[in-house]
Amino acid sequence: MATEILMPALSPTMEEGTLAKWLVKEGDTVSAGDILAEIETDKATMEFEAVDEGILGKILIEAGTDGVKVNTPIAVLVEDGEDADAAAAQSASPAPQATKTPPPRPRQNQRPPRPRPNRISPKAPNYAPAPCARRCGTPWPRRCAATTPSS
After folding, report:
1. How far apart are the C-alpha atoms of 76 and 56, rounded to whole Å?
2. Distance CA 121, CA 63 (A)
3. How far apart are CA 71 and CA 68, in angstroms?
4. Segment 34-60, tens digit of pLDDT
């Protein structure tokens, strides 16, 4: 079964890259870990290695191509005895579109969300804390221990 080799995301921010150079040719046997190509990102040039083993059946993106999007098929890896052109044609054909399901309808009997309680009570007096309350760090409207009359 033919395996598509996809343009890898070599960095978390990579969206596209340049396929600088192929290090293998069509018909070469590759095994896992072999270096297939050099890919240039916006920051560096990195080597791309094979994950599977097989025969490089068809190169879909030529060397020197700029602006290759991540996850775009760049080559086809086939098994021994497989036809590379048929595998490439199969991979080039668009995948069947998934049927779109309509978005879920909102339930009719759904209760509205409960309001969040306010941090400040509506019955709290509307005045600023005393300067001493700010200094000693007590939440207003409590009185600061330093300002309470001594008995």
Report:
1. 6
2. 69
3. 9
4. 999 999 988 888 898 888 898 888 889
